[in-house]
């Protein structure tokens, strides 16, 4: 067992978990709702929220409900800043050319997390894929593309034969697809983005069912991936 000097901080862990709860909720929550989802007494949740609010990480809306604070945007902008800076013009170009939401996904332990996202400017309807959105790396097109860059020894435990086959096919086809895996009714196409000295990543689009050819979408994504790799030196 870890001793007192090396044991993780329960208070810090709970504070981080509150931020995750608010991000996943996609709406404001009452203190009671936060406490219930965190599985703590209301007074504990209140003290944690007061501290987070003091640092601008949470805020209150007009009804007094809890939302994520604007300070988080400043912190997020500093994450892989050079990668985001090089990727955003390419994500924007793809989104507007294809009329689909285009996003950059990176590996975070056993999850794939959206680092940056751009919705098409003139689409009649588009799918929101907010930065910070995460899902297990074992599902969805971005996850398959990311896993294709990793030896199986670094995969999460319990990967299915179907997933292994899908990740292996990325090496042949150059892209991964998914449908109904992360969000019902949505399709996704992703290409792997390998960058020297960084965790595996992927560029992807997500869209409603259309007559688009995934291979043609992947061809466009791969052009952007190549430009980002070149800009970042590998």
Automatic annotation (TrEMBL):
Domain HTH iclR-type: from-to ranges: 9-70
Keyword vocabulary terms for this entry: DNA-binding, Transcription, Transcription regulation
Keyword Nucleotide-binding included in the entry's annotation: no
InterPro entries the UniProt entry points to: GAF-like_dom_sf, HTH_MetabolicPath_Reg, Tscrpt_reg_IclR_C, Tscrpt_reg_IclR_N, WH-like_DNA-bd_sf, WH_DNA-bd_sf
Pfam families listed in its UniProt record: HTH_IclR (PF09339), IclR_C (PF01614)
DNA-binding is among the record's keywords: yes
Domain IclR-ED: 71-234
Protein name: IclR family transcriptional regulator
